[in-house]
Model the fold of this input.
Amino acid sequence: MAKKEMEVVRSIDLKRYMGRWYEIASFSSFFQPRNGENTRATYTLNEDGSVHVLKETWSNDKRDYIEGTAYKVDPKSDEAKLKVKFYVPLFLPIIPVVGDYWALYLDEDYTYALIGEPRRKYLLILCRKTHLDEDIYNQLVEKAKEEGYDVSKLKRTPQADPLPAENGGTDTRGVWWIKSLFRK
Done:
């Protein structure tokens, strides 16, 4: 049985979407440390309409991060379908890694979101705060299930209170991706 076409958010206001989002849960990703905590993404609108992406996570008291650029797949469409491009390894940016970033759900106040991609191998639950109400979390999980995701793969992301310092710990820019090749 073929999976239905995913429904995505329409008429997203990118300016309102900008800022910091905390990862509440996600599917494990090949480029993210397995024991990552306090994972967050900060989005900044560029003058050309693209979005600067800074994704950070902490593991073993070290800050790992990766930067990239997101842009609308079809600038004329009102669908919230974006592509995200990261260059890896970061210290020798020669290999672009491009992925889909589709907003599957976004509340009207832009405080929590469900993000996925068409192959259903990547899923994120994001929130402007480090913790999300359990009822809302469960509603987002149900929405993901309706869109054809195997939600048994969803893993909650530990978030500390208080959060680590803005750039706390030792930076390991670029190492994150290399370690991921060996699943460390």
About this structure: DSSP finds three helices and ten strands in the chain.
